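re the bet — no i am not wrong, look at it urself. input seq straight from the record:
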Amino acid sequence: MPKYIPDRDGDFDVWFQNYQQYAVANAVALGLTPAQALEIQTAKINWSLGYSNLISARNAYQAAQEIKDEKREAGETVIRKITGIVQKRPETTDAQREGLGITVPDRQPTPLDPEAIRHIAPPILLPDFSQRGQVTIHFGPNPQDEHKNALPEIARAVRLQFYIGVVTPGTDVNALPWQWLADDTHSPYLHILNGPVTVSYRAQYIDRNLHLGVLCDPVTVTITA
């Protein structure tokens, strides 16, 4: 392909528009026949149609993708709600759980190495404090994307702790008056606070035998009232 033709479609579209307009307006001076000028115009029309169709398809795909993600999130919310009801029902059988494809309790749990939970990286904390008076704490191995943020297989939950104040460098973190916030199995966790206040968070995994994993580094945020 000659180098004077742009590679990017957007640049090519602008370039082709100028090329077509100039060629048609100066056809005689350029030694072009009416048929050749028409050929350029036809090629430009066909290109513009194909390019606009592609842009429309891309926009439609993006919109459909966003709607799909919203519907999946709504679906998962309903599933977790109904599953919670079913799991708490004393009459629910393991066969029914298997039929639904939900978690079946391990009736003969495999012994766990109490140190195994300490051999995995601690959860990552991603607090969202954009709303006044609250912090939404996303936690897990991939808190940036809740659809890919399942807890490690060995972990049963995440223990969240908080401390009112800033953790300054050089501080003995473990000597601070940390408070238990929650043992949560699904990210995110909503923490309601009376602001303005500066609060620090840290977290660790818990296995099914309640062995605690390594604590993550504290994360500090300041919220408004």
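see?? The chain has two domains: 1-105, 116-223. told u. also The CA atoms of residues 171 and 218 lie 11 Å apart. so pay up
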